[in-house]
Automatic annotation (TrEMBL):
UniProt xrefs under Pfam families: HTH_18
Transmembrane segments: none
GO molecular function, one term: DNA-binding transcription factor activity
Protein's name in the database: AraC-like DNA-binding protein
Coiled coil stretches, renumbered: none
SUPFAM superfamilies in UniProt: Homeodomain-like
Domain annotation HTH araC/xylS-type: ranges: 179-277
Cited PANTHER family: ARAC-FAMILY TRANSCRIPTIONAL REGULATOR, TRANSCRIPTIONAL REGULATORY PROTEIN
Entry-linked InterPro entries: Homeodomain-like_sf (IPR009057), HTH_AraC (IPR018060), Tscrpt_reg_AraC-type_HTH (IPR020449)
Keyword Transcription: yes
Alphabetical keyword list: DNA-binding, Transcription, Transcription regulation
Keyword Protein biosynthesis: no
Length: 282
């Protein structure tokens, strides 16, 4: 089962399938899409994100952005997938916790995996049924209806994420600051390497950010910035033919030797050793 709605004038798409492994490359637009992956099976499903193994338990869903590289080669059971691009839902790039810049996509430092518990399962199953039916109603307001249903899914999932993934002692303003920081790092990690630069964008002090992430019981802000740079370097080594020198310049390093030193500090391997290890693993 595969459904798609596309507006060619806007370049927008929303797609839906109960077997994303089979249909992932069969949508009109596959690049730069944000995805919900939902395991509706009774057993876990295995796949990889950025070459890292992920196990999605039964009745759990997760979100991945256009920044991630996903492979379903190890998946034995079908995964329900909802994909959409910014042109469909994020035309104005609005900034709120249920936007494309929101908690589900940039609000946590790790890929969010959310449990659909028994008391919520009926609500999500009903959404699935209505969403499926709507793809069979091709009229002038179908796009608006699909957009509203997508927003409902994002709202339901955001509420669960706030309950399950975010420290209870944080208030809404603090949660929003964490979300905005993570989003800004994804935008500017090539050019901004200091916490103070992000603190200025957020109208906060660096100490306030450090204290906030300490309460959140996660990595310090500076580590998040460095990890993001290292992650992008690994992605380029895995998924492009770029040489180490090209990657260094692409990531904002003026000296390839400085990049090599940074990469070894972050991964305990030089870029060349990392590439060799990747080939052996493959």
């Amino acid at each position: 089962m595969k459904y798609e709605y596309q507006d060619s004038k806007l370049g927008s798409i929303i797609g839906f399938t109960d077997n994303i492994q089979k249909n992932i490359n069969h949508f009109s637009i596959t690049q730069n899409t944000i995805k919900f992956l939902w395991n509706r099976n009774e057993k876990p499903v295995d796949f990889t994100v950025d070459n890292i193994p992920v196990e999605l338990p039964p009745n759990h869903l997760m979100t991945i952005t256009y920044l991630h590289k996903v492979s379903f080669e190890k998946s034995e059971l079908p995964i329900t997938g909802i994909l959409f691009n910014r042109e469909f839902y994020c035309i104005a790039d609005h900034d709120s916790e249920v936007s494309c810049n929101g908690i589900l996509f940039f609000g946590t430092q790790d890929i969010p995996i959310i449990a659909v518990k028994e008391n919520q399962k009926r609500k999500f199953d009903l959404w699935h049924e209505v969403f499926t039916e709507e793809f069979g109603t091709p009229d002038n307001i179908q796009g608006d209806m699909l957009q509203m249903l997508l927003k409902r899914l994002i709202i339901m999932s955001t509420r669960l994420a706030k309950e399950q993934l975010i420290v209870k002692t944080l208030n809404n303003e603090q949660i929003d600051t964490i979300r905005k920081f993570n989003f800004l790092v994804d935008l500017h990690y090539r050019s901004k390497r200091k916490v103070s630069e992000y603190a200025e964008l957020l109208f906060k002090s660096p100490k306030t950010l450090s204290n906030l992430f300490s309460i959140y019981n996660q990595k310090p802000p500076q580590q998040i910035i460095l990890d993001r740079i290292a992650l992008e370097a690994k992605r380029m080594m895995h998924f492009t033919d770029m040489q180490n020198q090209e990657i260094a310049y692409e990531l904002g390093f003026n000296d390839p030797a400085h990049f090599s030193k940074f990469f070894k500090k972050m991964t305990h391997m030089t870029p060349s050793e990392y590439r060799e290890n990747k080939v052996i693993a493959a």
